[in-house]
């Protein structure tokens, strides 16, 4: 199978408003003297750790009951269930007759 002629040509031909990559053409820009990147966009994470030390501690203390209480309750439940399982599966637990 032979490739078509347009594949061999490389760049597009004909009258097009937009040019090829690097030579896009188009109307001339008027009134734009320079482009500047905002300093806030250059370093968006500047000072994040220092601000967390002061503000983050307060937020962490305010939110502690929402994660510390469930974690503590979960730890207590797991600890109780492990101890109960060991008691149920030992001679001592079976000899007490506490479990059917």
Automatic annotation (TrEMBL):
GO biological process: mitochondrial electron transport, ubiquinol to cytochrome c
GO CC term (a single one): respiratory chain complex III
Subunit-structure text: Component of the ubiquinol-cytochrome c oxidoreductase (cytochrome b-c1 complex, complex III, CIII), a multisubunit enzyme composed of 3 respiratory subunits cytochrome b, cytochrome c1 and Rieske protein, 2 core protein subunits, and additional low-molecular weight protein subunits. The complex exists as an obligatory dimer and forms supercomplexes (SCs) in the inner mitochondrial membrane with cytochrome c oxidase (complex IV, CIV).
Subcellular location: Mitochondrion inner membrane
Pfam families on file: UcrQ
Transmembrane segments: 64-82
Family: Belongs to the UQCRQ/QCR8 family.
Lineage, top ranks: Eukaryota, Fungi, Dikarya, Basidiomycota, Pucciniomycotina
Keyword RNA-binding (UniProt): no
Membrane topology value: Single-pass membrane protein
Keywords linked to the UniProt accession: Electron transport, Membrane, Mitochondrion, Mitochondrion inner membrane, Respiratory chain, Transmembrane, Transmembrane helix, Transport
Signal peptide: none
Protein biosynthesis recorded as keyword: no
Protein name in UniProt: Cytochrome b-c1 complex subunit 8
Organism: Rhodotorula graminis (strain WP1)
Stated role: Component of the ubiquinol-cytochrome c oxidoreductase, a multisubunit transmembrane complex that is part of the mitochondrial electron transport chain which drives oxidative phosphorylation. The complex plays an important role in the uptake of multiple carbon sources present in different host niches.
Major localization class: mitochondrion
